[in-house]
Write a structure and sequence with these properties.
The chain is mostly helical and 618 residues long. Among the domains are: 189 residues, Tetratricopeptide repeat domain (Serine Threonine Protein Phosphatase 5, Tetratricopeptide repeat); 117 residues, Serine Threonine Protein Phosphatase 5, Tetratricopeptide repeat (Alpha Horseshoe), CATH 1.25.40.10. Helices cover 68% and strands 0% of the residues. It is built from 33 helices and no strands. The longest helix is centred in the middle third of the chain and has 25 residues. It starts with 14 loop residues before the first helix and ends with a helix.
Length: 618
């Protein structure tokens, strides 16, 4: 079985949430060139038009990967250049100035015995040479350095390049770049000296690709990944994304940079609840059950736990958490009440991204009441978040052994199958859940989405129409049906559905803001109306300031307009809202890919037009 990505296995269907969390993985190239497209070619629709062929996700309208799987899967023989960029080997790349093998037979000697022959011993001797003689001597010294390099006599080669720099009137970027290559082959390598020489080479020729790559590789070895991303990004764009090794280096450095920064951030920041939209969606995926009964002679803990459940019903999530913690500290008099308390606290630990803490609390809940089915289902979600599918399915089986008639078990197991792409099994579980209780709206919605994913479009559309008839006062079906319509580019109908969802949920607490973001995307794809799209996303943030999907969409819209600095700020905000390490890594990756793009356009403004051509496939 393929490894399962971290998921909120019990969350109701929401393809837009999935789109936001996976966007970086599917748009490695586009995030680098998006602003160039908007600035140079006015092709604001590029990112979405290239992403518009649905391959699906957790819902109806997730965009596909823009990369070609066939090209990525081809095994290519490693060249010396590839090995250098990947940090393999000891001698680096061949210098571009070394004489090709077919010409070596005509040479008198590989290198003179006195490799510094002809170099004046003092300033007076140097002053006696004309400028032309000095430049010719510099070229000779460069050639000697190249031959010494090919013999792996790197320190002697460095002497030649250094003398070439000293004697030449006209400075040549090649001298510095070749000397930099020698430094990387010292034992141990002198990467700082390599960076300094590449700096000098690039002052003389700022589009000197070999110097850029050497500096990028040295920066990576020095763990200066942000600067390495900048240089590898420049190489990738200048070479029209033809150098797979450089493109792979961008991803590699971004991954290391993001993982390191995420670890530092998580170690120092305080836990924070996600957006009310996210919390309410997760909680809505479980059928409601009665809150714990307060005993005739309640303890303080019993009363506080009752208040915690009152706060939960009022969607006052901050007080829910503080009250359930207080109740556990005070002591709860019944096993059932205590199990409910640990279940509730474990739920919120899961929601803030503390999977291990959630696991401990849910296990405590099950120690107290082993047949507490909801705790089994929730701990299955935790195991999925931890990438442990085997134990997740074992949890579902245990839940069934305790109460095979609980419809929640089959709904949530269906969600896991759905996320894994096993739609037949997902539909079977959804249908089982519906047989046991057909009043739960999300099971119907998700079954219809799964049919759509299987290509049974007519059946899915018919199912959605039935859901709309059977649940006329609920806004969720209109939102998800709108996504199905949007995926088929039925723009006007999809917008009408999103508007209907907003209308039906206007008195809901907390408000569901996803229809606002979906409508924004629909208007952007339909009419390329960025202003309207931005306005809708900002309206969503007025309602729910922590809506990560709205923030991610605003970042993408900013990139489309060439507002890279603005996009960076949105990506930073997205990182602040990230619930899990994976989400934080994604946000940091976006941010630094955008920073690299901004640096490229600042340092190489003449390439803005080329970015537009690349984006349009010219």
């Amino acid at each position: 079985m393929a490894p399962v990505p971290p998921v909120e296995a019990a969350a109701p269907p929401s393809s837009i949430v999935d789109r936001a969390t996976r966007w970086v993985e599917e748009n490695q190239k586009l995030i680098l060139i998006g602003a160039g497209v908007a600035a140079a070619a006015g092709a604001g629709y590029y990112l979405y038009s290239r992403s518009g062929e649905s391959k699906g996700g957790d819902g109806a309208a997730a965009p596909p990967s823009t990369g070609s799987s066939s090209s990525k899967n081809k095994k290519k023989k490693k060249t010396k250049k590839d090995k250098f960029l990947k940090g393999e080997g000891t001698t680096g790349p061949l210098l571009e100035e070394i004489t090709p093998p077919e010409k070596k037979a005509d040479e008198k000697a590989a290198v003179v015995d006195d490799y510094l022959e002809g170099v004046p011993k003092d300033e007076a001797g140097l002053a006696a040479l004309s400028d032309a003689e000095r430049n010719a001597l510099g070229a000779t010294l460069k050639d000697r350095g190249n031959k010494l390099y090919s013999k792996k006599e790197f320190k002697k080669a460095v002497e030649c390049y250094s003398k070439a720099i000293d004697v030449s009137v006209k400075k040549d970027a090649v001298f510095y770049s070749n000397r930099a290559a020698c430094y990387t082959n010292y034992s141990p390598p002198e990467y700082e000296l390599c960076v300094k020489d590449c700096d000098e080479a690039l002052k003389l020729d700022r589009t000197y690709i070999k110097a850029l790559k050497r500096r990028a590789t040295a920066l990576e070895r020095l763990d200066r990944d942000e600067e390495a991303v900048r240089d590898f990004t420049a190489c990738t764009i200048i070479e029209r994304f033809q150098d797979e090794a450089a493109a792979a280096a961008v991803e590699r450095c971004l991954k290391k940079l993001a993982a390191r920064r995420a670890k530092d951030i998580l170690a120092s920041r305080e836990s924070k609840l996600p957006s009310p939209t996210f919390i309410s969606s997760y909680l809505a995926a479980f059928r409601p059950h009665a809150k714990p009964t307060v005993p005739e002679k309640p303890t303080d803990g019993d009363n506080t736990l009752s208040l915690a459940f009152d706060a939960l019903e009022a969607a006052d999530y901050v007080h829910t958490v503080s009250l359930v913690n207080e109740a556990i500290e005070q002591g709860i008099s019944t096993k059932q009440g205590e199990a409910e308390a640990y279940n509730l606290r474990g739920t919120f630990k899961f929601l803030i991204g503390d999977s291990l803490g959630a696991k401990a609390d849910l296990e405590k809940s099950l120690d107290l009441v082993p047949d507490f089915v909801q705790s089994w289902v929730k701990i299955a979600s935790v195991h999925m978040e931890l990438g442990d599918a085997t134990n997740a399915f074992a949890d579902f089986e245990t839940a069934i052994s305790h109460n095979a008639a609980d419809p929640d078990i089959y709904y949530h197991r269906g969600q896991v199958f759905f996320i894994m792409g096993e739609h037949d099994k997902a539909i079977a579980d959804y249908n089982k859940s519906i047989e046991l209780d057909d009043s739960f709206i999300f099971t119907h919605v998700q079954a219809a989405v799964a049919q759509y994913k299987q290509g049974e479009v007519a059946k899915s559309m018919a199912a959605f129409r039935r859901i709309l008839r059977n649940f006329p006062e609920r806004g969720e079906p209109s939102n998800y049906y709108g996504e199905i319509l949007l995926d088929q580019q039925k723009f006007q109908e999809s917008v009408e559905r999103f508007e209907r969802s907003i209308e039906l949920d206007q008195d809901r607490k907390p408000r569901n803001v996803l229809p606002y973001v979906n409508k924004a995307l629909a208007l952007f794809q339909w009419k390329q109306d960025i202003q309207a799209a931005e306005s809708l996303c900002k309206e969503a943030l007025d309602i729910d300031p922590d809506c990560d999907v709205a923030v991610a969409t605003l970042a993408q819209l900013s990139l489309q307009q060439g507002k890279i600095e603005e996009a960076i700020k949105w990506f930073e905000r997205s990182g602040n809202l990230a619930r899990t390490e994976g989400e934080l890594i994604n946000a940091i990756t976006y941010e630094h890919a955008s920073r690299a793009q901004a640096a490229f356009l600042k340092n190489f403004p003449e390439f803005a037009e080329r970015l537009g051509q690349i984006a349009q496939g010219v």
